[in-house]
Structures are given as structure tokens and as C-alpha cells.
Design goal:
101 residues, mainly beta, four-stranded mixed β-sheet, 10% helix
């Protein structure tokens, strides 16, 4: 059973950095998901997919995995590139694009 250790990125609908400070440990799926024929629900027989542990630091998550003998992969978080823009840039004289209303 392989565990993934990662720091989640912010969602597309989120402008702040809420819920992105912790590191998560999740297990890779051991069995594929199947569609239940009568109702059409997607299900799996792998119960480890439901386990999601949170840690304050990456080192704590790695220590937990090593203590319990879990194989793990660490996915480093990429810092978002910030684009500095101001409202006054819309009215500059040397604006690249044409002004449209």
C-alpha cells in the first residue's frame, strides 16, 4: 500500500490560502472503482481510500509513514506565481491592448 504525502493547492473558487497550510497523507487506490449496476453508484472495495490524515508539517507526515512501515511518495507544493496588477493599469497611455468598452 503506497501513501501520497502532499500539500493541497487552493481551489479554483478560492481567492485566499485557507485550508492549504497542512500536509495530507492519503493512500493510492489498490482496487479500481466500479459502477454498481442497479443504481449506477461508483463504489470501491478498497477501504483505505477513505483514510485521509492531516499533519502540520511534511516531516510529521513522513515520520508517521516510516513509523508505521508505509511506502510513501512526497509531492512538493509549487508556489503560485503572483501577477501584480493594478486597476490603474487599465488606463495607462502605453497600454498594449486596444481600449474597448
Amino acid at each position: 500500500m503506497v501513501a501520497r504525502i502532499y500539500k493541497p493547492a487552493r481551489t479554483a473558487t478560492q481567492s485566499g490560502q485557507a485550508k492549504t497550510g497542512q500536509w495530507h497523507l492519503e493512500f493510492e487506490p489498490a482496487a479500481p472503482r466500479t459502477v454498481e449496476p442497479l443504481m449506477g453508484y461508483t463504489s470501491s472495495t478498497d477501504m483505505a481510500q477513505q483514510v485521509k490524515l492531516s499533519f502540520a508539517t511534511k516531516e510529521e507526515a513522513i515520520a508517521y509513514a516510516e513509523k508505521n512501515g508505509l511506502a510513501y511518495q512526497v509531492f512538493e507544493a509549487e508556489e503560485p506565481k503572483r501577477r501584480l496588477a493594478a486597476y490603474s493599469d487599465n488606463f495607462k497611455f502605453n497600454r498594449v491592448g486596444a481600449w474597448t468598452h
